């Protein structure tokens, strides 16, 4: 009897741990997004009233590197007072991150680093690019895995509904 109880308890805990890693539209995503280039913590709660676009990316991912300037252009057009783009480098070592960050130094989006994938895991990220839009109330409004013309079209449609 005790073995059955332990078995079912193990299954219950496993299911609940994994359930927390998948965000759905309307969910409140994890607050912490890493540290910016000056070491300041970046939190969703600091952006209340703004739309926040969170993109997980990597330097080896060419679609990611094509997406970042587009996201910055969107941020520039809408205005930093209304939208904030946070680009989280996902699972790359510090040396590689510093190298690519230097190449991207002209970009004005907020860059953070998730070396071990801890932040990404909380968001359910398994592949890059993986983009999330968090609305002005702090709830998930949209997410997309991958990058292409159709994903940009979807992104623009969702953002147009936010403003």
Features:
disordered N terminus, Glutaredoxin, Thioredoxin-like_sf, Redoxin, oxidoreductase activity, Thioredoxin_domain, two-stranded antiparallel sheet, 5-stranded mixed sheet, 163 residues, Peroxiredoxin
Explain how this protein is built.
It is a single chain. This protein is of the alpha/beta class and 163 residues long. It has a single domain, classed as Glutaredoxin (3-Layer(aba) Sandwich). Helices cover 40% and strands 23% of the residues. It contains five helices and seven strands. The protein has a five-stranded mixed β-sheet. Strands 1-2 form a two-stranded antiparallel ribbon. The N and C termini lie far apart (58 Å).
In short:
This protein has 163 residues and is of the alpha/beta class.
Helices and strands in order:
Layout: H1 2-19, E1 32-35, E2 41-43, E3 51-57, H2 62-78, E4 83-90, H3 94-103, E5 110-114, H4 118-123, E6 130-134, E7 140-145, H5 149-162
Parallel strand pairs: 3-4, 4-5
Antiparallel strand pairs: 1-2, 3-6, 6-7
Number of helices: 5
Task: Return the CATH class.
Answer: Alpha Beta
Q: Unreliable stretches, pLDDT < 50, 5 or more residues?
A: 2-20
Q: H/E element string?
A: HEEEHEHEHEEH
The CATH architecture can be named as 3-Layer(aba) Sandwich
CATH H-level superfamily: Glutaredoxin
Number of strands: 7
In percent, how much strand structure appears in the residues?
15-25%
- Overall structural class, as computed from helix and strand content, comes to alpha/beta
Helical content stands at 25-40%
Return the CATH topology: Glutaredoxin
Read across the widest sheet, the strand sequence of neighbours is 5-4-3-6-7
Give the biggest beta sheet.
Answer: 5 strands, mixed
* C-alpha Rg (nearest Å): 17 Å
Overall pLDDT: 88
């Amino acid at each position: 009897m005790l073995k059955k109880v332990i078995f079912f308890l193990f299954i219950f805990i496993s299911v609940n741990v994994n359930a927390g890693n998948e965000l759905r539209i309307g969910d409140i995503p994890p607050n912490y997004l890493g540290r910016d280039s000056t070491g300041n913590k970046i939190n969703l709660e600091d952006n209340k009233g703004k739309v926040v676009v969170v993109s997980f990316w990597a330097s080896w991912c060419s679609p990611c590197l094509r997406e970042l300037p587009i996201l910055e252009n969107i941020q520039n057009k809408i205005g930093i007072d209304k939208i904030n783009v946070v680009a989280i480098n996902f699972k790359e070592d510090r040396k590689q991150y510093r190298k690519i960050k230097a190449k991207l130094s002209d970009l004005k989006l907020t860059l953070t680093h998730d070396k071990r994938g801890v932040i990404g895991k909380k968001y359910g990220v398994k592949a890059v690019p993986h983009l999330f839009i968090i609305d002005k109330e702090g709830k998930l409004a949209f997410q997309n895995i991958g990058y292409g013309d159709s994903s940009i079209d979807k992104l623009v449609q969702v953002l147009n509904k936010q403003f």
